[in-house]
Amino acid sequence: MKILHTSDWHLGHTLYGFDRQEEQQDMLQQIIEITRKERPDAFLLSGDVYDISQPSATAQQMFSECMAQLHRSVPGMCIIVTAGNHDGGSRTEAFHSLLSMVDIHTIGTIDKEHPENHIIELSGKGFIIALPYASERNIPDGFYTLLSDMVAERNPEGLPVVMMAHTTVKSADFSGHDQKFDNLIGGIEGVEISTFGDGYDYLALGHIHRPQTFTIKDSERLVRYSGTPIAISFDEEVNQSGFEREGSDLREHGHSVSIVEIHSRGAKPTVRTERVKNIHPLITLPEDGPRPWNEVKEVFDKYPSSIQSYIRLNVAIEDTLPSSAYAEVHEIAKKKACRFCLINAVRQEKSHTATHRTMELSEFQQQQPIDILKRYYHDKNGGDLPQDLEEMFLTAVKELEEQMRES
């Protein structure tokens, strides 16, 4: 069985107020071309199709047109889409009956009454166990084992088995992620890999944006996050030379989709990647770390004027940015094709005395709640936010996000 594994498209995502439709359309077209070339038996999209649970009409149209083109490109291919924590589960399943007629399966919620609905059989090729994002309390005890046992009963020929899920796995590399604290990423608490049992050959994960592979000890099974096809934040993106600062998978391959082949049940899957390029890359200047304002301004002034990229400036400060900083940057940006996003002011502490700086409104709007709390605590107390308080705050944010999704 040959599959194409991708996840975390985040269609409709905006970056500091800039619309990303053009580059997302290009991303989808690249994925369609890769699919046409590879001709997999199954196309797996492991959650976070959209950036928000109520996506715009434009984002939904991009997705539906992509599905249609994929189906036309490889008519015999099975397409399976599961909901992520950014997607609305019921919305994902809205056209399930109609789409399944052309072998496009959309799984948005856990079906406790009919677990067999999570199993898709590819005749003569293998089985897919498709699981959407769900909070732990909505997943019945032993559900993964139940599904694996059901597949085993239907699989006397020993065909490959793939499981899909959208969650945080403990020990994963969370570099570049917002809202991260130990094993709590994006409001999803981490689980052990053992949670999924051993009834699969390949576990196709979504949610963590950095591509990475886990090898299960004393077995041939593989677990993989395919990562984002294009970066969602500056900390995910490769730099100008095309190599990420951290993380071997991104350093070597950049953002991509995964091509996986499995010959039989129990055989070790082979994984390779197909690169997806971003026509509007996310660039942080200077690349070698924060520098004083005058040096950063000079680096930006020398940045090629023809590159259509997003720009973040890393500035080292002791107290505050110069009051004219944003005006100067916007003046420089007028001469360039790039889209200036923000100045990331990195405080260089001179002592343990609390210092304050004024935050621009645009910068404030892009901050995560935990970052604002950390800054507030530091300014008030001159130290780092205690771990127990951070944990309590992130737990509260997680519960609030779950309530909002369920409502």
Structure, described:
The longest helix is centred in the last third of the chain and has 20 residues, at 387-406. The strands form five sheets. This protein has a six-stranded mixed β-sheet with strand order 6-5-4-1-16-17. The chain folds into two domains: 2-275, 4-Layer Sandwich (Purple Acid Phosphatase, chain A, domain 2), CATH 3.60.21; 282-366, no CATH class. The two termini are 39 Å apart. The chain has helices spanning 21-38, 57-73, 89-92, 96-100, 143-153, 248-253, 293-302, 325-333, 361-365, 369-381, 387-406, and strands spanning 2-6, 14-15, 18-19, 42-46, 78-82, 104-107, 119-122, 126-130, 161-166, 180-181, 184-185, 188-189, 202-206, 212-215, 222-225, 256-261, 270-275, 282-285, 310-317, 339-347. Helices cover 29% and strands 22% of the residues. The relative contact order is 0.11. It is built from eleven helices and 20 strands. The chain is of the alpha/beta class and 407 residues long.
